[in-house]
Input
Amino acid sequence: MRNVKLIMACLVAIGFVSAGPALAIDLQLALEAICGNGIIEDPEECDDANGNDNDQCTNTCEFATCGDGIVWNQDMGTEECDDGNFDVSDDCPMCYYAYCGDGFVWSTGMGTEECDDGNTQDGDGCSSDCRVEGVANDQFSWGRVKARYL
Output
């Protein structure tokens, strides 16, 4: 940043540009962060100077995270999906594809689970195909997992 100011001052001194509002605008533009130039500038979190949105640094110069809507599956990223939300009842809970036994009741969209206790064992109230089994009342819950007897 200091170098940019020095260069602009030199340009004014030799008469290449004139001081005034236009110089202030040019100086401000020169000082703004440019995402994608390989230099981490405020407010960037990262800047890897590539066009790959699936690595650790997104094309908006922010670190990749679950829920940002971008599938981070390179550079140690392990996301299978990223639908940009934190809804654990859809087909992409916590950035992994939903399946019976993952501990999340997949009940929206094409999901048909009645329960999901985090395993695929029969005889524990939630069957291996995520159906409620042997429940006397119409509702039960295990911590974060709730299901209704249908």
Summary: Confidence is low (pLDDT under 50) at residues 141-150. DSSP finds two helices and two strands in the chain.
